[in-house]
Amino acid sequence: MTPAVFEPATPLAPPSGRTTNDLIRQQNLASVLSLLHLRGALSRAQLGAAIGLNRSTVTGLVMELTELGLVREVAAGERTGRVGRPTLDIEPEDHVSALSVRAEPHAVTVALVGLGGVVHARLRHDTASAPSPRRFVQIVASSVEAMRADIDRHYRVVGAGLAVPGLVNANGSVLVSPTLGWKRDPVAARLSDELGLAVTAGNDASIGALAESRFGVGVGVSNLLYLGGAMHSIGGGLIIDGTLLRGTSGYAGELGHTVIDPRGRACVCGRRGCLEAEVRLDLLEPLLGRRKLDEDELDVELGVARDPRVLSEVTRQVEVLSLALTNFVNAFSPETVVLSGYLGALLSVSRERLAEAVRVHPLGAEGRAIRLERAHLRSRLMLIGPAELAFADLLANPAGFRG
């Protein structure tokens, strides 16, 4: 998927006091930095070919980004000429970083992520129960303070991104997060005041879709359906024609609250038989005799499971998930369906059944080739994803960004 900053759909009028040349320069700087951020080290020739600019223009843009401390030259490994002088590629400065924060019912994770999706450090703080918004902010601040000496010595932090399992509006306020017990709380503003940084918040599943589309299995995919399964919840994210679908106030993608069985299990949203009430890890863990399994441990447990109770529950949940996937594919007609977290583990043991749901049952399936994939970023997904929110302003206007 080509980032929208590369080619604006319509010419933009220059703001007051700025010329058209200023605006073109800003767009070109954004194009170069965004391309390097997403693809890694590239030569000047590759940059020019991708963006449609001549070599001298690219050289000038690279020089400016280098002076801003946002990119650097590195040996490409290839040698040209008789003297064996290495060619130089350009790559993003990964010491330019963002804080990535994830809120979960029983954990708070804080990571430091550099341009290019490089994870420098992370801290996870387990909690006995879902923290209040105030307590959550305290935990994040404490985690950042634990990283403080290293951050101050090596990194330039440009902002923070926050992933929340719930409805989050454009201002970073949580309308409701059933699994956290938060309602109408300006958590992004709270965190911004505490850290002294700009904080951008979003729904965790939409953030997951964004990260997979930029750095994972969804690279180059224009229409993608993402479903992520956590311990107590399922969230969805949709990339439609290359753009993250946000809906009114940013609330699109609550696919976990699609009713699959009106007479089913009670859901935290107040209804019965929602997808996330029927397909959840905490229904399976007691049968496995394990608690707080991470994704890799779960893969192993499901791969060796022979207990009829475990196999029966896995089969039941896979059938429910299959029905939901058929409905979602009919509704959104994606090229690729990506499952992450707990749902990715179910895919690993039931690929044939789930693949049938997205390839056979949907209307018009005979004319489509729909890929069903597990998220490639795995444990890095919710580290890299929130950082993308924090990098957005920098990538849109490198020269004008002040952090």
TrEMBL record:
<dbReference type="InterPro" id="IPR000600">
    <property type="entry name" value="ROK"/>
</dbReference>
<feature type="region of interest" description="Disordered">
    <location>
        <begin position="1"/>
        <end position="20"/>
    </location>
</feature>
<protein>
    <submittedName>
        <fullName>ROK family protein</fullName>
    </submittedName>
</protein>
<dbReference type="Pfam" id="PF00480">
    <property type="entry name" value="ROK"/>
</dbReference>
<dbReference type="InterPro" id="IPR036390">
    <property type="entry name" value="WH_DNA-bd_sf"/>
</dbReference>
<dbReference type="InterPro" id="IPR036388">
    <property type="entry name" value="WH-like_DNA-bd_sf"/>
</dbReference>
<dbReference type="InterPro" id="IPR043129">
    <property type="entry name" value="ATPase_NBD"/>
</dbReference>
<comment type="similarity">
    <text>Belongs to the ROK (NagC/XylR) family.</text>
</comment>
